[in-house]
Structures are given as C-alpha cells and as structure tokens.
Amino acid sequence: MGSTDLLPKGTFRQEGPFQFIKPDNYAARYEMDRYQIIRSPETRKQIRSPIFRYISFDDPEAVKSQYKTLNEIYRKMGLLIRFSRFGRPYYLIPVHLISDTLTYVRAKVEEITRIVGLHMKKNLREHQRIGVFSPQDDLIVYELSLRFKEHQFVVLDTSEKLKELSAPLDLVILTSDPYEVVLMQLSGLPNPEALTKKRLDRHVTYILWRIYDVLNSDGEIFVIADHFSGKSNGKTEVHFMTDREAKRFAIFTHIFATKKKYRIRGRRAVVNISDLRRYLSGRYVEQDIVDQLLKGRTLDDLPMKEIDRLPYFDTPFAGWPFALEQKKTWGRLISTFFDETYLTPMRPESVEQDWKERITFTDYIPDCMMAYLGRKKPLKTTLGDVKQAVRESKLSGCPIELVSEYRNSFEFLIRTLRILHDLKQGTQQGLPQVYVDRLRQPFESRNRRFCALGHVTKLISRLKRLERIRAYLNPDGIEGPKTRLIENLEALTFFGFTADELREVLLIVLGHTHFSRIISGKMTEKTLEPVSNRAQKYSPQEALNLLRYCRLMTFAETKAAGRKELTPVQLMELFDLYESTVRVIINKELDWDQLLDEKITAMGGIHNKIVRKVLMMMGYFEFLYDWPELKHKGEMEKESLADYDDEKLSRIENVLRLIRTVEEFEKMYLKFDPLELPRFYRRFLEMEFHGTGHLFQRMNSRNIFVLLWITVSLARERVINFNPILAEVETENIEERIQRVEEAAQTITVHYLDLEVLSRFREQLDVSRSSFIVGTGFQISVSTGEREVLDIGYKNMGKNLDTLEHLLKQLADRPVGDIPVSDLEALNRLFSNLETFFQSHMTLVQDEGSALPLPPKQIEWFDRARALRTALRNRLLGVIFRPDHLFTDLDLLF
C-alpha cells in the first residue's frame, strides 16, 4: 500500500482481496444473495416490500428512515454492509484482516512499533501519550491501538486538534509525507492551483512548530511515508514472476499515462524507472475503469496479445504540483525545530519479499519508503527567560496578562519596526522637523545611543525575515486575522533571534516604559519611578541615552497603536514627559509626588487635571490646553473654531458634554464632604487603566465618564481593564459593538450612582466576584493574580436570551446523544452568561440595604432567564444532570 503522489478521491487499491461496493450496486448484490440466506417468512415479506425494492441506496435521506430494518436484514443475510442513522454506509470488516493483506501498512506498522519501543527505553516510560498525524480511519492507527494497549494514541487529523491538546505528547508520528498532510487539509480550498511550493512550506512549518509545541521536552517526531524521489528517465529490465503479474502491469500501462507503450514478451520488459516506482506503489484504480477497459472479462480470460490491443486511457498520474527532492526537503523543514537522529530511504524486508514474489529487477532496486526520526531541539531562550529579563529591565509598560490583543501580534511588531526604519532612513514625513531631529539622535550619534537600541536596529534589519516567520506561524490566516506574538515568541529562537532581541520584541508589545500609557491618560507620572531609579544608577550621559531610547520607542509604538501620525500636542506631551523625567533624575530633592502636585497646581487644580486626563483617554489632544475656553464660546464661535466642519464641531460638543458631566457628578456626589472630591480624584489619578484607547476614542464623553465613575469606585487595587469589551471582536465588527456599548451606557441611571450604593456593589463583588450593572449588559468581574484587576466586559443580554430561546427550541425533540458538540458548546456559553446575570439579580433583590427601583428591562431579562433556566432543567437534567448543579454539570457534557 502507499503512493508517492497525491491520490484522487473515490478510489481504491487493487492490492488485497477486499473491494469496495458502490452504493448504486448494493441493490444488485442484495437481489442476488437474498433468497440464498433468508429463511424467515417475515424477512422475505420485508424484502418483497416495494419500499426496499425501489429504495435509492445512494440517497442518505431515503435510507436513514429505514436504516434499522435494512441493517437487521443484512445481519440475517450474513452481509457486512451496514447503514448509520444518517443513511451512510459502513462495513463490518475486521480491521486486522485488512491490514494483514496490505504490505505497506504492515511495513509501516512494524517500523513504528520499533520506534515506539526505542522511545520507551530511552525515556524509561512504560505509558506514553503518542500523537498520530493521519486520517481518523487510517488502518495504521487501528493496528497500533491493538498492539499497544498500554499507550494512549491521539489521532491528529487536523492542525486544530494540535492546538486543542490539553496534555503534552511523548511522541508524534506522521504516517505520510508532511506535504501530503498539508494538501489533505487544504483540499477544500476554492483555488487549489494556488498551492505553490512556498505556500505549502509555510503550512508544513506551521504544523511542525505546533508539533514541537505539544511535545514533552524529550519528545520525538517520527515520519514514515511513501518514498518519492522525483522524475527519472532511467530504465531497467524487469521479469514478472507470473503471467497474471505481467498482465496486471500491462493493464496498468493502458490505464495510466506511462512514459511509453510497453510490449511484454516472455514476462520480460524494459521499463522506465518512474513507471516502475508508480506501479510498485500500488496505484489507486477505480473498479469501473477496469471493467470499462476489460468489458466485463477477467485477466485470466485475456491473452497478452489481446491486452496489447486494448485502448489506452492515458489517465494522468496525480503527482506533486512541483519537483520534490524528498530527503533534502525533509531535512530543510524538519530540522528547523528538531535535531535529526536519522533521515534515510527504506526498503522494509516484508515489502522487498512481496516484490520478489511478483517481480525481479536486473540492475535496479527501488526504495519504497522514507523515514525521519528527530528529537526536540532545546530552546536557547525560553519565554520565561525573556519575561524575567523584561522584569529586571524595569521598562515594561504593561503587565503581560493585560496586554491588548492588537499589540500582542506580529502585525503590531512589524508596524513599529517599519516606523523606526523610516525614521532611521530620514523618510519620516508629516512631523515638525525639530521633533524628528531629536527623535533621530540615537540613530545618528553613538554617544547618544543606549546599548539596547543596537538590538532594535538588528530587528529593523530583519523585517523581511519577521514577515516570513509570521507567514509560517499563521499561513493563510489559519490562526485568525492576527498572528499572536507572545505565544509564538520562542519560535523566533529557531530563526536566529537572540535573547536580547527577544527582550526588545516583548518590550515593543508591552511598551518601553509607561510613557505611552501616561500620554494616553491611562496612568499617572508617578509610575515612572522605577525608570528614573534605574537611570539614576547610570552616568548622566548614559541616563539621558536611556531616556532618549525610551522616547524613541514610545513614539514608534504609539504611532503603530493608533495607525496614524501623532499630533503636535501628543509630541509635546511626550517630550514634556521626557523633560520631567530628566528633572527627577538630576534633582535629587525632587520626587514624582512633588512633580505631580506642581503640575496639578499649574493646571488650575485637580478638577482640571481629571478633565485633561479623560480628554487624553479619548484622544482629544487638540483640546488639552484650551478646553476651559470652550465653555464661553457661543454657537457661531464654535462653528468658526471648527472651521464649519461637522466632525470637528461634534468633537467640540463632546468636550463640552464631558465638562458638564464632570460638574454634574461633582454637584451630586462630591460637594457634600469637602474632603471627598480631592480624595476621589486622587484615587482616580492613581488608577491604572487598560483597553481604553480604541474604545473611548469612539464614544460619547458622558458615557465614558459614567463608566469611569463606576469602575473607579469599585476597584480596590487600582487596576481597571476595559479590554474585555472589545475582546475577540473582529475589526469590521468593532463599530457595531461600540454602538451597543453606547446604548447600554445611556440606560444607566446616574441618580443611583452615589458612593454608598457603589460601596454596596463592591461588597457584592467581594463575595460573588462577578456581577452586572443593573439594567445593562455590563459585566463587572474581579480577577486575582499578582494584583487584583477589575475587568469590565459587555454581554448583549437581549441577543443572548433570544439566541438561547431559539437554540432550545431547535433541540427540544432531539435525544441528548444526537445534539452536535458545537450546539452544546454554544448552549454552555450562553447559559454561563445567563447564570452570571441571574445570580447577580438574585443577590441584588436579596440585599436588604438596597431599595432602588429596578429598570423594566432588568425585570424582563430576569423573567426570561428564569424561564429558560427551568426549560433547560426540564429538558436535560432528568437525563444527565443533578438539578442542584445546573451549570457546573453542563461543563461535564463535554
């Protein structure tokens, strides 16, 4: 068994005693045998029934209604054909009977058995977890499972299963060429002609990296595939051991487009080596093609002279779409991640013995298989090493667990490096020259260059390599529109990237210092203390070089994040922050608290600092210095200031709306206690925000401040994360999501947001760890790690409830075992959201200290959630769940 080339679908090998029966031939076979076996009058009556006489066996819909009766009749007849409940045929043929007749299967299984034994001895493990990359119904998998009861075999027929593995593997086996594995997965593409060698190399590299990633540290990869050595014009004289074998070869040459037309005399022929290889590989041939050629006769009925006169079909060999030197290609691709133990062509003894019984060669012995064994290469630099180096640098701008999805991508890294490349080359446009000259200083003068910038420069020179690696780790977007970086960081070590370069890569993702986050309003200047402390340990010149390097990297990272040029005001803020850091470093008597107080006083008080901070979060930098003047502008003055541009005028109105909202909240909740306003705003300033940039730049300022008011009041450890609101939302759907968020925020009743009410909400969170803002889909949850983080996400509860109702109706009359896993996963996900909301509401109504009226929408959602909860219990709990553990047990279904 085996093929060196790509094999067409719907075919079977001529080797072995078994033949597949086409569905449209079932009736004929069935009619022929039925009276020879059936004795029961009841069964004979069933057979004579018109519904079985005229049933279309190639129509699953027609068969599935009668599949049980058909299977019972076939069982009584002794036939091994069966139909599934979906109307599809399958066969009750003992697997070992098939595999024992297929020489190539036996040979591969024997070699794999040897490798499994060697791996056990090397690693002293009695029980191994072995991944087999092959089709689900591959005979090799069945044979291995029978031989090795003590090992767990995991079939990996798609790259998705590699990603979903929950435990590491000890050994991974590929039973076919890596290219063939990829081509099998990509066979459904609409344009298979676009499968270039370069494109396939990317997919093979991706699979190999995923295999590397799931293997234990001492894991190995074993590939055993049919041998393919490219085209050959060589010839050899062969002798067929029997007349039947000579006839089979002759039939083969009439079906396929061989190099020449052969005439076999005395069981001898001079054969092209390429044709001989293809013949020995056991080509797939459809039976009806053979019948069409022989016109119903058998080989024994035809003398060789009549076979010579048969027509030639010249069926093309389904070969590789490009030339392939298998040994060289495997060595190049697999050696990226694995140390080669051996890579060699093979000719198993059992296969060679089979050939000797059929055919002999005068001066040529072909190889039939290629085998590779390799062990995982040790990582020169691990992700843990890089994280530790970043922590020690004191330069990280964001905790790794809170980094935004768009920043954790090769796309963001490459954009940042391209910006640096343009700046280095002097092709940066759209900025005031004075800023460009100061930013370029580290590139132009070694005396003003911090040592780490050399590693960044090396990264810039490797932009094309990074683009190639991105294509390897996410070919054709198989992982989604963005290629994750942190999860794939270790892969860069196999492409020549050093530990220092990887540290800079991670710092680009996380941000070089908090500079960028401070000028975006997400953090306070005080968070730069670790950087200034580090700089104070250097000489004055080296300290300045460190800050120039951080300023340069912040510029590139901020521009890459916003995908647009920084405004002059943003640049002013960045350079002002740089100057402030220099002041703290040089002046030993000045600390960040004093500097912050100085800035607050210069701005006119903490109220103005807060408004300015929110404007930074919104990206409204053009109003940072003159926003107080807008309050005194008339309508015509505002239109003139906006240059009669509707979009600019809308931004002005949004600023004014923010000012009014801040003043409104101060009057309602902060004026009664003279100490409350500065205390609350100080707390506001010290908060660390995440995920506000892309969200707040598109939102109504009043809604922004309402969400900030709530979350600042609820957060204990001063870390607030808005990333969940846009998490896993595709770029094209962001605007729609933000519109839903806006609508939900507008329904929040601000008159019930006093600090006492929010304090009780905080106490509920301490117990439940998750809750909803009343009447909205905003879910507040608390996650703990090194620091407690307040996460705010958004669930479209109305849509969730509608979808859940629809899904339950669809599943109403179906047995639990027939429900697709995807539907059950959706059911679990939707009910998880519903249960969090349900419990949040129950906690709210049971709070004796709360007498707030509930919005009608909240009551409607709760009633629907309660009804759906009951419906699920009635539908499923009696079968598989305990009634008192609805959602815990729902997870067990998977």
Q: Tally the helices.
A: 42
Arrangement of strands in the largest sheet: 4-3-5-6-11-9
pLDDT averaged over residues: 83
Overall strand count: 16
Unreliable stretches, pLDDT < 50, 5 or more residues?
1-39, 877-894
- Rg over alpha carbons: 36 Å
**Beta-strand share of residues:** 5-15%
End-to-end gap: 37 Å
Helix content: 40-55%
Anisotropy-based shape? globular
Main β-sheet description: 6 strands, mixed
Query: How would you classify the helix and strand content by structural class?
Result: alpha/beta
Question: What this model shows, in words?
Answer:
With 894 residues, this protein is an alpha/beta fold. Helices cover 54% and strands 10% of the residues. The protein contains 42 helices and 16 strands. The strands form four sheets. A six-stranded mixed β-sheet has the order 4-3-5-6-11-9, with helices on both faces. A hairpin with a 5-residue loop joins strand 1 and strand 2. It starts with 25 loop residues before the first helix and ends with a helix. The model is unreliable at 1-39 and 877-894 (pLDDT under 50).
